[in-house]
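We read letters as residues; the integers encode the fold. Take this protein.
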Amino acid sequence: MPTRTSPLPRWLRHPLTGALLLLVLTAGALLVILRPLPSVKPLMTIETIGASVEGRPLLCHFFGEGTRTVFVMASIHGSEGAGTPIAERLMRWLTEHPQPWAGCRVMVMPVANPDGLAMEQRFNARGVDLNRNFPADNRQEKERYGPAPLSEPESQALAALIQRTMPDLIIAIHQPLACVDYDGPPPAEAWANRMAKACGLKVEKLGARPGSLGAWFGETLHRPIITLELLPGPAVDPAALWNRYGPGVVDLIVNPSPVD
């Protein structure tokens, strides 16, 4: 019978060649395994910006990064808790839909007054209305407004966060006046009109309350802030709250244009 010859060259059929090839392949595999993976920034980070009078953490959630910053906060009045599930649903939406808001940094603080929310009362644990405790030009000296501007740890933490990040827009969720209010320069009014339309509410210029966040950020610092006043009622159905008000909040995050 004729002798069958291998199609491989003689040098490849040498035993030492096979051993060397195995060594090279093994070394290459080890290099792939040991090579550091590229770092991937998390979609969301949580920062403890302070603590309440009773020691509850004040948590702010940071989503993404970009040249535009939107800050959404709720429950600075503890008796107005329906805004908290809306903020929590917003965080879920941001996680599940990262593309529409790409290029924007979104900050979400579901509970700005954790002691008041736990006690179901408007004020913090020291009986101070946090939304009258900011260093606005129109601040008034009243006992329930605190002994001095930023006398409370909660308002101190909020003011420090805002001054550090200087948002392009703040959306503060309140109850129970069922309207959209605004303070600050354009396009605050146009944004308020858009949100009101999306939420089925009216725009009502309530006027900056003395020492409020709206007065300080909108009038003193001259930056736009929208106050979303929900209908009265407890937060018994988070899904219904999100369906009613969520589209208006999302719209102002993903579309910075002052017009529709």
User: Anything to note?
Assistant: The first helix runs from residue 15 to 34.
